[in-house]
Amino acid sequence: MKSRARLLGHPVHQMLIVFPLGLLTAAVIFDVVGLLLDEAGWWSLSYWVMAAGIVGALIAAPFGLIDWLAIPRGTRARKIGRLHGLGNGVVSLLFLGSWLLRSSGVYPGDVALTLSFAGIALALITGWLGGELVSRLGVGVDDDAELNAPNSLTHSAAHRNVM
Q1: What is the number of structural domains in the chain?
Q2: For the chain, does the N or the C end have fewer beta carbons within 10 angstroms?
Q3: Is 119 within 8 Å of 95 (Cβ atoms)?
């Protein structure tokens, strides 16, 4: 099923989601390093990277909603998409709560750390659901996708390598 929100022939949601996932994962890694080294600089890094990840999630979410609304009702893809979207909403709220409890350069506190660790654990599940949507169910995949499909910008045929 071809994505409804596209840029230069590719799904916008799939292009954008890598940023919040990477940034929020980095924030948790910085939290762990901060715990291990007990150095305030890591808490500051985590604070600002987490803020950027939350903003990235807010930017990516509407494009996922646009694609989800195009999935036919009563399908497995629609159910999985709903779980994926709602789960990522919870992930965003967990990280937002963690961020709001923090100050840059200061130990974030046990509750803030627990929220971010729970957020990344849930993100692993919702990320898997997103992978299931794309890789298994073909949501966001061009209807004409194949190993020798035309270029998405020029629509010219791919060169076939004959061996």
Answers
A1: 1
A2: C
A3: yes
